[in-house]
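Hello,

Our lab assistant flagged a job as stuck in the queue for most of the afternoon. It eventually completed. Since we weren't sure the result was trustworthy after the delay, we are filing this so someone can double-check. Below is the sequence as submitted and the structure that was eventually returned. Let us know if re-running is recommended.
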Amino acid sequence: MEFESAQNNTTAKLPLLKLENGNSWVFVPVTSQENGTFVTKMSVPITAEEKTNKKNDVKARSLLLMALPNEHQLTFSQYDDAQSMFTAIKTRFGGNEATKKTQKALLKQQYENFNASSTESLDSLFNRLQKLVSRLAILGVVITSEDLNLKFFRSLPSEWDTHVVV
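-- returned structure --
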């Protein structure tokens, strides 16, 4: 909604609506003159499918912005749709093939050397291993359930040996 202010009075421009099919209201395009040219504005979707697509796009943009660290939100909020925003995020944070290869090698090494301290709780150990496996999966490394279970049991401190059945 646009507001125009004169000296002492304020008026609001309300959108024009018309009844369509006898049961739903739709916005009417408004033509105005800006900088000597006539511009027709239609700011909202008309069909139910367009409304659903717009609603889904707004949700996707919101989720993408919430997932970003605060210092990057302003940079990416300029994109009008979720698809272009996601493409920009992938370009910015995705890295090139050499970076991915190095990261994959580093994560594999961390997985191979994974071990638990005697003071670490079982939950934090599992969460740490799951996070490492998830990051490997993002880079395309597949670890079977059997390998993951064996890695988990073998990484437990020696105090757990009596509880683990090999």
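-- support follow-up --
The delay was a queue issue, not a problem with the job. The result is valid. The chain has six helices and six strands. The chain has three domains: 10-41, 48-93, 97-159.
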